[in-house]
Amino acid sequence: MGLGSYPCSDELSLQMLGMHGTVYANFVVDRSDLLFAFGKNKQPHVSVCTDVKLALRGLNEILEAKRDNLNLEFSAWREELKEQKNEVPLSYQAFGDAIPPQFAIQVIDELTNGNAITMADLWWIGASVARPDAVVVDIDGDGSFIMNVQELATMRVENLPLKIMLLNNQHLGMVVQWEDRFNKSNWAHAYFGNCSNESQIFPNMLKFAEACEIPAAHVMKKGDLGAAIQKMLDTPGPYLLDVAVPHQEHVLPMIPSGGAFKDVITEGDGRSMY
Ligand SMILES: Cc1ncc(C[n+]2csc(CCOP(=O)(O)OP(=O)(O)O)c2C)c(N)n1
Ligand SMILES: [Mg+2]
């Protein structure tokens, strides 16, 4: 919550809210009596159209004026939140040499000292044009990449210093996750590879990059990831890094569609049956 305007590392930060939000952010919303949402497109009980800065200043003024009559002692509530954070932190498992996707994101964060602008959506080209001085990393999936692969040509022609870190699980992972969890692993049309040769990564994403004269590399093992990411960051101009990640990883936590906080899933992956 407040992503982009409140430091995620702060003790009071709750990070992401919603279907794949942190357990503690969703806990807060579940328990709160009053929720202020700024700039959201959800249907609220009461809606106000205003400049957010003005609204926040106005709220502060009202609170200041009533200060003496209000109980602003929230330490017990904060303690409860801290407990939630400690009990259910964001975490992930590693399996041998395989690269956990979360680990790849963590390494990008470390190697750029937390300064990378990372995107997993379509506006990464705009971010790079707007902030030519910043390191802009598009953290992509193989499915999403294929849908927008022609933008490699844009990157080259415009010579944008964009880095694409492709988390390649050879699947529409989000679709697979829903099928695993809610349809007894009955997969349909979610595999991206070539069924006649499953051991080879298909399509060869590096060839798309080559067609657009963009330097690119594959990385398959956890131990090689740091150097591969460093090379991507050190190479001037655009770059594609195709990172092989296991297709069994699930994006967690997750509150299933139509569910509530009590339904939150925090464990398991595509290696189990449900
Ligand atoms: C244009 C469009 N079509 C379909 C979807 C639905 N959708 C959401 S995630 C997803 C799978 C994406 O696969 P990939 O990019 O490989 O990421 P992964 O989940 O495997 O990490 C799909 C099809 C979408 N968000 N946008
Ligand atoms: Mg994928």
Q: Quick gist of this model?
A:
By secondary structure, the protein is of the alpha/beta class. It has helices at 23-31, 52-66, 75-87, 101-111, 124-130, 142-147, 151-157, 173-182, 205-211, 222-234; strands at 117-119, 136-141, 163-168, 216-219, 239-244. A 5-stranded parallel β-sheet has the order 1-2-3-5-4, sandwiched between helices.
- The percent range for helix content is 25-40%
Structural class: alpha/beta
> How would you sum up the major sheet?
5 strands, parallel
Approximate shape? globular
Trace the largest sheet across and list its strands: 1-2-3-5-4
* Low-confidence region ranges: none
Order of helices and strands: HHHHEHEHHEHHEHE
Q: CATH superfamily name of the largest domain?
A: Thiamin diphosphate (ThDP)-binding fold, Pyr/PP domains
Termini separation: 31 Å
Within the CATH hierarchy, at the fold level, what is the topology of the largest domain?
Rossmann fold
CATH class of the largest domain: Alpha Beta
Query: How much of the polypeptide forms β-strand, as a percent range?
Result: 5-15%
Structural notes for this entry:
It is a single chain. With 274 residues, the chain is of the alpha/beta class. It folds into 2 domains: 3-87, no CATH class; 101-244, Rossmann fold. The chain is built from 10 helices and 5 strands. Strands 1-2-3-5-4 form a 5-stranded parallel beta sheet, sandwiched between helices. Helix 5 (124-130) links the parallel strand 1 and strand 2. Helix 4 packs across helix 10 (222-234). The mean pLDDT is 93. The site of thiamine diphosphate (TPP) has 11 residues, from helix 6 and helix 8.
